[in-house]
Amino acid sequence: MKKANTAIVHVVPSFHYDVAYVKTFKEYLPESLANIKSALDLLEKHADYTYNVEQVVLLQEYWKKHPEDRAKMKQYAAAGRFYCAPGMYTMPDSNIPSGENFIRNALIGRNWLKQHLGITPTCCWMADVFGHNPQSPQLAKTCGFESYMFERGKAGSWNTTFNWKGIDGTLLAAHWEVDTYYGVILGMAWEGSRPREWIDQRIMEQVLGPQQAGSPCKDVLLTPQGGDFLKPTEKHWQFVQDWNRRNKEFSLEFSSPEAYFQELKKRGAVLPVEENDLNPLCEGCFSARIKIKQYNRSLEEMAASLEALESLNGASHRASDATWKTLAFNAFHDIICGSLVRKAAEEALAKYRHAEDFAQTKITAFMSSLANKNSVKETVLFNSLPYPRKEIVQSGKKGMFQEVELPPLGFAVVNSSGKNTSRGVKLSSDGRTLENERIKAVFGQNGTVVSLYDKESGQDLAVAGDGMNNPISASDIGDPWTINGSINSSLLRTAPFRNPKPISGGEVTRDGRIDAKCADADCYDWPQPEIIANDPLQATVQFSYPAMKIKTQITLRKGEKLLRIKTLFMPAGKKYRVLAAFPTAIKNGRIRHSVPCGHIERPEGEYGVQGWIDYADKEKGLLLLNKGLPGNSVTDGVLLLSLFRAVSMEKNDKIPWYEEGIEQIFEYGIMPFSPKDKTYNPAREAALFNREVCVLPGAGVSAELLNRKPLVELDGDGAELSCLRRENGGLLLRLWESRGKDSRVKCIFADTIKSCFKMNADGTDKTPRKFSGNIIDLRLKPFEIITLSVK
Questions:
Q1: DSSP 208
Q2: Are 450 and 421 in contact, with CB atoms under 8 Å apart?
Q3: Residues 560 and 436: beta-carbon distance below 8 Å
């Protein structure tokens, strides 16, 4: 019972566990399952005790291995004493996976909990995540969460409980664990080695005091009783009893995050509103173990293509569901961030490879079932995007290309016998000039782009004496989390990282102490251009830097303003990182970064992004696209793309692993644009760049299939489609507004619509939506995420 003038502290017993980190998932399992067993014993013994298990991937294992405890789990869950926060399949990173990846992760977890325990999580507790993207409030809310809780990455004020406002305007109650996800354990851990008075004082100073100082309601607080793999024991229950007998100022009560937020609402607490982007943090994670990030991006795109083909075939979604489950598993923050030992990293890569092979096999099978209708055998292409696209594809002999127009969610064939008479791309005989009707690129003696001329705006984006796509190798004595340093704190607040381009080692410097130097294109013998392809539709030139073990290929296609770049690198040595530098003629420009289901303006420095960043002044701009390369920065007018870090978990791996001898391939691109061009759409450019066309060689296709109306077509460039699947006898679509302004988009279906409902991603808040014939006319708010159920 609460004493007069005593603050109530909601205590949340839990333990944070890693899906993979310094051990593999299987190696962690015995300890993690034993902790759940211990928690269930305490729940049985003490009626006031509560317990949280973070991630469903572990609960699922316990459920399988301990059927004798299923009744207990259901009983305590029904009583609100055994619960899950966040209750996602895993606790994912917030910046690297896509918004759709986050949603699927949440739905996998929530569906399992509802089916097996009959509970629905309401608090998205992202305890150990390295920063939080500004679209998180809407993403969490559409999945059914009513609150958000986190330790790392607070920005701005020192408020501990507040309303977090997302980039679309969504408000979500949020709690910052200024006392870390250990909470009262920060004091309890010293039991037996410190006096009781000292422990109580530490809890007051490090836990309850800071919580109360930042709380909108001083007599209702929240703190964990947790830690990494902390086994719940009798002493944890007893500590609360003993504390309450001797303390009059704060009363500890076993509870849940949900109960805490409900109590605040009951008391009418007014939460301050904060709009902060809770980044950056642990910038090294954006390029440590880079293959993991690249696999994540490519498999996200394959999963979407597979889901579309399943929908076209009227098949179940077992294959795509399995692919999304792999993505959700590896989205766990330490896996996708690359902060894990070699054995665990290699297991993650093997899991990706298996999922990729599986998805590709299914894509081929579904395309074959649709396409093999004709005796004439050609290469068949499938566009899984809901709008038309043009592709330049290889046709017939090597070095010959053909332009193919693909309908939305539709098929086309490559006619290998057709002759290409188009005129578009010109590559000079010396390989130094590459141009088409829209842009012109000139390569300097060192192989970098010393001129990038936009023929439409009349602007040159490059700096003649400091070329673009300059390969850089710079010292990096950091660990997987931190560039040129080691992780050394709980990282409770954001840590901006200003990252200027290092000075070329080819420059003579006579100052005393200078900024860091690097190896780059000017430090070695100048490369000679090697012409890889020279066709009016597509031309490619390559520059090699043997001393750096780097080759970079630059491709230009007819009709595009995009320079497509593929860089190949063979790692050797340790403690360095490789970047691509793009100095620009832009000064004091605006920096925009893509984030899950949106974009945001940010200051100079390195951040994690999705598929693109751009940088522009009033007259000219440069778009930088990437395929799974999230470490991006702009500093002093220079765009830097972090490609690779030769770092290791040196304290945990018996033999440090720097990925030596494992070839790395990086794909990215640059595109000049005019800020005055109303058709410029970086989100659409990123979608086209990342979504590969599905290819089925040696197949036939019927005229009926080529002319078939798409399941759905998006008319308008203000939204992107992240989900298309068949559910409940109809289609389920999820879209997000991509331009950051009020947008109008029409969804045009192949068949007449009978019903349409708008709802959250978890199926709640279902409301009828107007339609006409086979068209749904949508008016979307900036960065709005919308899920539609259509029959």
A1: I
A2: no
A3: yes
In the predicted model, is pLDDT for residue 3 greater than 60? no
Tokens of 310: 């399943």
Distance CA 360, CA 570 (A): 27
3-state secondary structure of 507: coil
Residue 452 β-bridge partners: 441
With beta carbons less than 8 A apart as the criterion, state whether 631 and 608 touch.
Answer: yes
| Cβ atoms of residues 50 and 256 within 8 Å | yes
Residue by residue, DSSP assigns 319-377 as: HHHHHHHHHHHHTBHHHHTT-S-HHHHHHHHHHHHHHHHHHHHHHHHHHHHHH---SS-
CA-atom Rg of the chain in angstroms = 28
Phi, psi torsion values for 114, nearest 5 degrees: -65, -40
Q: How confident is the model at residue 499 (pLDDT cuts 50, 70, 90)?
A: confident
Q: Under 8 Å CB-to-CB from 630, ≥6 apart: which residues?
A: 95, 96, 286, 287, 293, 608, 609, 610
Model pLDDT for residues 535-566, shown as the tens digit of each residue: 999 999 999 999 999 999 999 999 999 999 99
List b or e across 69-79, with b for residues whose CB sees 16 or more CB atoms inside 10 angstroms. Answer: beeebeebbee
Token code pair at residue 546: 């043997």
Going by C-alpha positions, the residue among 87, 97, 81, 159 that lies closest to residue 132 is 97
Provide the b/e sequence for 490-518 (b: ≥16 CB within 10 Å): ebbbbbbbebebbebbeeeeeeeeeeebb
Q: What are phi and psi of 279, to 5 degrees?
A: -150, 165
User: What are φ and ψ of residue 560, in 5° steps?
Assistant: -105, 150
The model carries a pTM of: 0.97
Beta-carbon contacts of residue 397 (< 8 Å; ≥ 6 apart): none
Element (H, E) at 101: helix 99-116
Q: What angle do CA 303, 415, 403 make, to 5 degrees?
A: 70
Summarize pLDDT for 691-728 with one digit per residue, the tens: 999 999 887 778 888 889 999 999 999 999 999 999 99
Residues making up the chain, counted from first to last: 791
CA distance to 243, 362, 704, per residue, from 47 (Å):
18, 51, 67
